[in-house]
Write a structure and sequence with these properties.
The longest helix is centred in the N-terminal third of the chain and has 13 residues. The N terminus is likely disordered. This protein folds into two domains: about 280 residues, TolB, C-terminal domain (Neuraminidase, 6 Propeller); about 70 residues, Immunoglobulin-like. It is mainly beta. It is globular and about 50 Å long. It is built from two helices and 32 strands.
Length: about 375
């Protein structure tokens, strides 16, 4: 391991005693020169100061795409587009390889844990490009979607639980039944190399157009509404701060830019041409996950992930005994009674990040949400 990585580890150990302080860390996946490195997962503090590399070429990562942190295992999953279709699992504090979570995939790109607690994986270069599904212990569950999406690289679910996948090469977004995986047709076409997508509280869909450098908003029926951000060529990767600010990776100049909750530019969080070449995934999280340290996994059982009105999936309501809401320092905000057709009004809370945890027989899962009032 490099000196920076060792410094990272010892810093982690020393910070572990500061139990009352919440320290945010920002992890950024760097695709570098695409089919050639140097690849890395870089770490920054909440002000954008570079803290070193969690992972680099020495750790066997190749054309990194996405990150999923598994707190209960103190591990992070990395999808590698150029490493024989590997999703690798590493220790989240040191970067040491634990094992290959999956192998032989068709160029894995985005990964996200769905409403059913399974890991959904998109494929860039497989012959059928179907969405794959895994248990969080790595057990393969096979194809989820009935049809494929070529060069798929963006994924999210709407408030009804239906699945949406973007095709970079096809410049469209495809819709699938969230329960059966059946193809429900093209939702939006005529885009310009779409990468990330996510649903807002209103049900509107935000689309990152990598080639045109325009981030757009579409209504729940797929109709264009407006441009939110322009001039972000190579836009890929995003996450939200507790106050609703959003970080966006910009591949054209190797920057990470910060915008407020209304998509107004604030600053370069990572300056162009400094520590990154092609940022393509961003995760903001507790540097030391103390607030909800006993949670099992991040899953998506709440929709949308941003707003004040949230819906708990029927599957989660039937599966879990207890559903609780915590703030970022671990204080219990509210306990919800599991029931079908379950809605939760968060408008009484201050804006920021919260964690909804669901438990069953001592096992807990969590989802991060952002309370944002518009």
């Amino acid at each position: 391991m490099k000196t920076l990585k060792l410094l990272f580890y010892f810093t982690f150990c020393s910070l572990a005693f500061s139990l009352n302080a919440q320290t945010l860390a920002v992890y950024v996946s760097d695709a570098a020169n695409f089919n050639s490195g140097p690849y890395q997962v870089a770490k920054y503090d909440e002000n954008g100061a570079f803290l070193g590399q969690l992972l680099n070429d020495d750790d066997g990562i190749v054309w990194t795409q996405d990150m999923i942190f598994l707190d209960s295992e103190e591990a992070v999953l990395i999808s590698n587009l150029g490493a024989a279709g590997i999703i690798s699992k590493h220790h989240w504090a040191t970067g040491n390889l634990i094992e290959n979570f999956a192998e032989g995939l068709g160029g894995p790109t985005r990964m996200k844990v769905g409403p059913d607690g399974k890991l959904y994986v998109l494929q860039w270069s497989n012959t059928d490009n179907r969405v794959l599904r895994f248990e969080l212990d790595g057990t393969p569950l096979g194809d989820f979607t009935a049809t494929g999406v070529p060069q798929s690289i963006g994924i999210d679910w709407d408030s009804n639980g239906d699945l949406y996948v973007s095709s970079y090469g096809g410049s469209f977004i495809q819709k699938f039944n969230g329960t059966t995986g059946a193809d429900m047709g093209t939702f939006i076409s005529g885009l310009s190399g779409p990468t990330n997508i996510f649903f807002e509280a209103s049900g509107n869909l935000v689309v990152f157009n990598y080639n045109s450098g325009v981030i757009e908003r579409y209504d729940p029926a797929g109709n264009y509404i407006e441009d939110l951000i322009t001039g972000v060529n190579g836009c890929e990767g995003f996450d939200f701060f507790p106050n609703g600010d959003i970080l966006i990776g910009v591949g054209s100049d190797g920057s990470v830019r910060r915008y407020d909750s209304n998509y107004n530019f604030i600053e370069n969080f990572v300056e162009p041409g400094t520590t990154l070449l092609t940022p393509n995934a961003i995760v903001i999280r507790d540097d030391i996950p103390l607030s909800v340290a006993d949670i099992a996994h991040d899953i998506s059982f709440v929709t949308p992930s941003i707003g004040t009105q949230f819906r708990i999936s029927d599957e989660a309501a039937m599966r879990y005994d207890t559903i609780q809401v915590f703030d970022t320092i671990g204080r219990l905000v509210e306990t919800l009674e599991p029931e079908t057709s379950m809605n939760w009004d968060a408008s009484k809370l201050i804006e920021g990040i919260y964690f909804i945890t669901a438990s069953e027989n001592g096992q807990k899962s969590t989802q991060k949400i952002v309370v944002k009032k518009n």
